[in-house]
Amino acid sequence: MPRREPKPSSVHRPEHAVLAALLRELRLAAGLTQVEAATEIGLDQSSISDFETGDRGLELLVVRDLVHVYGGDWLAFVAELEARLSAGMKPASSLLRKSTLKGPRSRKV
């Protein structure tokens, strides 16, 4: 019998960390504690903590519930998530000033 590959889990994808961070930012912007957020959707505080630290996967409808509890606009949330995911990781060279990309600079010692 052929060996099956494990199912990909969103928890192990870099995008998951972006989603978790955005949810945490939204909760904090709303001025809610993890306990308050959890109570609103019928979970315990440790679930919210696990979502925000990336230790637990997030289901789409739970994310939607959290966004609504935080007073967020669902479509705006998704648009912001997409913008952050599209930005991706920037290479270190993008942090350099333009003049340093033209060639080596002489160093004063």
TrEMBL record:
It comes from Dyella flagellata. PROSITE patterns: HTH_CROC1 (PS50943). This is HTH cro/C1-type domain-containing protein. Residues 90-109 are annotated as: Disordered. Residues 23-77 form the HTH cro/C1-type domain. SMART domains: HTH_XRE (SM00530). The lineage of its organism: Bacteria, Pseudomonadati, Pseudomonadota, Gammaproteobacteria, Lysobacterales.
